[in-house]
From TrEMBL:
Keywords per UniProt: Acyltransferase, Transferase
Protein name as annotated: Putative acetyltransferase
GO MF term set: aminoglycoside N-acetyltransferase activity
GO BP annotation list: aminoglycoside antibiotic catabolic process
Sequence ranges assigned to domain Enhanced intracellular survival protein in this UniProt record: 316-416
Complex formation: Homohexamer; trimer of dimers.
UniProt keyword Transferase present: yes
NCBIfam families linked: PRK01346.1-4
Coiled coil region boundaries: none
Length: 419
């Protein structure tokens, strides 16, 4: 029997494109997907290979850990796009866990600030993994299950009000109409991220090699003037009760609307498909309007609530200057860095007209960890709450309240996508 390799013998490095198939196999192993990979899938997924940013760890030539990052646009409060280092495909094969491989891959990637990225982003498989690297949960998601017969909707509902209309379309129509609609939403929705061409192909069944694909229904909402303002993509199961009653569940894969009228029309539509008695909403912001579109909001029950997009601030000054502020004020923050990266003392001067954030030697009012700053940045978390938990410290009484008045937003951020 050959002895186990020492951690230092394991090589962590960007993979060559010729190693992509082995790397993908390791991703599947790490995510506990045992089905073999086809050559077509390897070729198809190659589109997302980025030279220098698909990292692997190799033990005697075998890929035992994976990590990938790519350029992403993330919408800050107020609608500006900030360049983000999106991290995904993080796996360490079970035989090599807890030997520091994730930490080594992360350390390599978090030099991303040198590429000019303002933040790094990821969606965490498990809550305890990424806080140690300076990430904080910046958006949350809620999924509702609607008990349709109790929702109080008018059973005679026959389409949107005010001249709007809903049409069922095909995947190819979504590939044509979806990107522009999504960009309209993305450019004003804090927490939203861009969708690449591959996203649209993967999510409309345009890739023959994707054996997990199940065709859904696609509904498009147009306003009275004929403009595409919303889309809902949903699947329906096949479930009949003992007495021959239809008891189907519609599961929304994604639903976006750029006006409240579009959102309302699409939710009313999905909740009024004959045979459907239950609607699962998919990943929404925790303050989504859905329950309140129903005459009886209690018919919509939150069945899943969890952290979603995690953010690590890579450049404090640019991050705080990229977003907008509804109030006016100054705040001196002591940001505790991680591994000597990013920390420092900063003076934020903010008003609805703009903000500046600069290093300072003034006394700090509030001490925050990098992860806490990530959680506060998109406006979701409360500094007062974090102070009560002992996770931020007031150096001046009232500083947490002042931070909330500046940083918190009237609606919660939302990242509709998984990556
Ligand atoms: C963005 C994404 O892709 S999310 C997907 C993440 N991947 C998965 O969940 C797939 C299954 N899990 C794995 O592949 C691995 O367990 C990983 C990637 C989560 C961790 O990889 P490892 O190489 O074992 O982590 P590593 O040894 O570098 O651990 C670093 C530290 O994090 C801790 N840690 C690692 N994973 C976890 C976890 N799941 N829960 C709690 N703590 C963890 C370790 O204990 C260690 O702590 P220490 O510094 O106090 O000793």
């Amino acid at each position: 029997m050959t002895p186990e390799s020492r951690a230092d013998d394991i090589d962590v490095r960007p993979i060559a494109e010729s190693e992509f198939a082995d790397w993908l196999r390791a991703v599947n192993t790490g995510f506990l997907r045992a089905a073999p990979l086809t050559d077509e899938e390897v070729e198809g997924r190659r589109e997302r290979f980025v030279e220098g940013r698909n990292l692997g760890a190799f033990d005697r030539g075998r890929c035992v850990a994976t990590f990938r990052s790519f350029d992403q646009e993330l919408t800050a409060v107020g609608g500006a796009s900030v360049p983000a280092d999106a991290i995904s495909g993080v796996t360490v094969t079970a035989t090599h866990r807890r030997r520091g491989l994730l930490s080594r891959m992360m350390a390599r990637d978090l030099t991303a600030a040198e590429r000019g990225d303002v933040v790094a982003t990821l969606i965490a498989a498990e809550y305890p993994i990424y806080g140690r690297y300076g990430f904080g949960p910046a958006t949350w998601m809620a999924e509702w299950t609607v008990d349709v017969p109790r929702a109080g909707l008018d059973a005679r509902w026959a389409g949107p009000a005010e001249g709007g209309r809903i049409d069922l379309v095909e995947g190819e129509d979504v590939r044509k109409l979806g990107p522009e609609l999504h960009e309209r939403l993305r450019r004003r929705q804090p927490g939203a991220i861009d969708r690449d061409d591959m996203w649209w192909k993967l999510n409309t069944g345009a890739l023959g090699w994707d054996t997990s694909w199940k065709p859904p229904f696609y509904a498009v909402y147009r306003s009275a003037s004929g403009e595409v303002e919303g889309m809902a993509v949903y699947e329906v199961d096949d479930n009949w009760g003992d007495a021959k009653q239809p008891l189907n569940t519609a599961t929304v894969r994604w639903l976006i609307g750029v006006t409240p009228a579009a959102e309302r029309a699409l939710w009313e539509y999905v909740c009024s498909v004959d045979w459907v008695v239950k609607v699962k909403s998919g990943w929404r912001a925790p303050d989504d309007l859905l329950p309140h579109f129903l005459p009886d909001p209690r018919a919509a029950r939150i069945t899943s609530l969890a952290d979603w997009l995690w953010v690590r601030i890579l450049d404090v000054e640019r991050a705080l200057e990229a977003r907008t502020y509804e109030g006016t004020g100054t705040l001196v923050l002591e940001v505790a860095g991680v591994d000597g990266l990013t920390g420092g003392r900063y003076r934020l001067e903010a008003s609805p007209e703009g903000a500046s954030c600069t290093p300072t030697t003034e006394s700090a009012e509030l001490e925050v960890g990098l992860g806490e700053l990530g959680a506060l940045w998109l406006g979701d978390e409360s500094a007062v709450r974090l102070a009560a938990l002992g996770r931020v410290r007031e150096e001046r009484a009232g500083a947490a309240r002042k931070a909330d008045a500046l940083l918190r937003t009237s609606r919660r951020p939302w990242c509709p996508d998984m990556f």
